[in-house]
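Target chain:
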Amino acid sequence: MSKDKIILFDDKKNCCACGACMNVCPKDAIRMEEDEYGFLYPQIDETKCVQCGACKKVCAYQNGPKLFEPKQVFVAVSKNKNQLLNSASGGVFAAVATKILKDGGVVFGATLDFENGHANPHHIKIENQKQLTKLQGSKYVQSSIGITYKQTKDYLKKGRIVLFSGTPCQISGLYEYLGKEYNNLYTIDVICHGVPNAKFFDDYLQIEKQRRSADKIEDYAFRDKRKGWGMNGRITLAKGRKQKKVYIPARLNSYNTLFLDGMIYRENCYSCKYARRERCADLTIGDYWGIEKEHPELLKNNMYNEKEGISCILANTEKGIKTCQNIKELLQMNDSSFEKVSRRNGQLNIPSKRPDSREMIMRKYSDHGYIAIEKWFRKKYKKQIIVHRIYNMIPRTIRLKLKAVIKGK
């Protein structure tokens, strides 16, 4: 046993908060704690630590991730209309999860719960299809892994089929924690721009609650497709016994705008080792942005409906290819290519760029709270807010015609 003090990371850009170190610690000596901006980082309780070094060994982010070259690429949309509506794009995750659950498996993924009106994004397990909606839809905030790596290992050792979904760094962290290959493990990573933290997100929601004179927040959807496929959200508010769902255009609220402009990600996201062609999961899924340019023939033949959302799939391993074959009856699928998919999904090539204003925003938040961020946004983005308010007043049918004209130029 070494007497040297364990140093988990020497720079914040070297930690993605996947939680592998916390899950592997035999003495339960590691906890994920917030920094001054609300981002989680592992901290060691020196009174419990025995310097075994297990935590350092499972750090895929620092030791170098195991990656795979995509073998096949697809366009895909779920044939299940309910699952498609509840999905951010084409419903691929729901289709894979449905197959795993029908085969008696367990599915892990990110959910967004609300406890006493406060947001709690975290990973959970489900074992039946009634729970599937909890894991559907994009969550543009970092999900806490908790002890789900430990739970996954227990199920795998018992012979259960497990599907684990998450950001690439979370999938890589799981593999390093497990330390060996399991034939009954299937993984999905998402094309990830970067992750803001849960505290920052919840503070934004509390501002929304006050602004709309509600008693509490009961739900939040980052992507609401009831008015079409895009980045617009929906917040569910409660006042007394009444519940109200409010549609939130992406560019009219501070959180979504700052997310889309890459200003509020954790430090390591700007140098992410997983924002590249090679992937760490069996399958990579995401929105097929630019489908109208890359596969106009599929839209012209009415094989896909752009309004409902369309996904891309990268099958990176033999397991990934097998999975796609096993869910063919659940999806409309067509061949595509990495080059086509990556043209409008930049994080398949390089990490998100770190804006010059990122540190200013984080410092402003740390010193004065989210109200200062909201005031800054209203002033800085004043013209954008006016333009988008006018734009959103135009009937959707007319907006779609305008988009078609613009795209046709």
Notes: The first strand starts at residue 30 and ends at 34. Residues 198-211 form the longest helix (14 residues).
